[in-house]
Design goal:
The protein is α/β, with parallel strands linked by helices. It contains eight helices and eleven strands. β2 and β3 form a beta hairpin.
């Protein structure tokens, strides 16, 4: 089956305390978004759509050597709105769409391959990459049920019951959708919320309400789902990337 990739790269990154677009901050001498694009290319996708917004010209110039299509999100009205901007570039695409964050450089192609395998093997409409955290505070929780551990609900921290807050399996923000399911559901979501934004996670609510098959795959290493929002988190990511590079060199020796 065909694969397309959408990479979210429109954010300003206010907490990075810099005017530089967040995805262009460097880790181990390379922009964050480069890691995500290079990992995506290892999956041999038919198309990669990069959602740009803040300082879009700088992001487009920095990524111009890659075979990506840029789609402008202006204004920026949430994650669901960001993905809507890719629809024109993918209007003739039939297959699966992988959604990644341009500020999460630690994801590996092996984990993404497994995520896609689970999605296709189970003939799912939507599949979410999850992770088990010792302290899941602040993350959306993935609630499973039934004998085969089907996903029943994805609930944000602020909306979770006391029992749901005890769940340590969290939503990473990495997803695979059937293309038709994704864009049809995006037409049904609204921005009737405090932020007046269109949330991509609302697509799952539509999938659940229409009894579509939603699956999950848990990343073997929770480090993989780390996003970069602060200079401190950037340092932590550099530490992980440095360790991986040293391990790779040892294996090659």
């Amino acid at each position: 089956m065909s694969l397309a990739v959408i990479i979210m790269a429109a954010g300003k990154g206010t907490r990075m305390k810099s005017d530089l677009p967040k995805v262009l901050h460097q880790a181990c001498g390379k922009p964050l978004v480069d890691y995500v694009i290079e990992t995506s290319l290892m999956l041999d996708p038919q198309n990669i759509v990069l959602i740009v917004g803040h300082e879009s010209g700088k992001v487009q110039q920095a990524t111009s050597r890659f075979p990506v299509t840029c789609a402008l999100q202006e204004p920026q009205l949430g994650t669901g709105h960001a993905v809507m901007q890719a629809e024109q570039a993918l209007e003739d695409f039939e297959g699966d769409i992988l959604i990644l964050s341009g500020d999460a450089p630690l994801i590996t192609h092996r984990t993404l391959e497994k995520l896609i395998d689970v999605h296709r093997h189970d003939k799912a409409h939507a599949t979410v990459l999850t992770a088990e955290l010792q302290d899941p505070t602040g993350y959306g929780r993935v609630i499973r049920g039934g004998n085969n551990g089907e996903v029943e609900k994805i609930v944000e921290q602020k909306d979770a019951t006391d029992a749901e807050k005890l769940v340590r399996e969290i939503n990473s923000g990495v997803y695979v959708f059937d293309a038709g399911t994704l864009f049809t559901a995006l037409e049904k979501i609204d921005n009737n919320n405090a932020q007046q934004e269109y949330y991509l996670t609302d697509v799952f609510g539509i999938c659940f309400s229409e009894n579509m098959k939603v699956r999950a795959y848990t990343a073997p290493d929770a480090d993989e789902i780390r996003g970069i929002n602060t200079p401190e988190q950037l340092q932590e990511a550099e530490s992980v990337l440095g360790r991986r590079q040293r391990e790779k060199l040892r294996r090659e020796d």
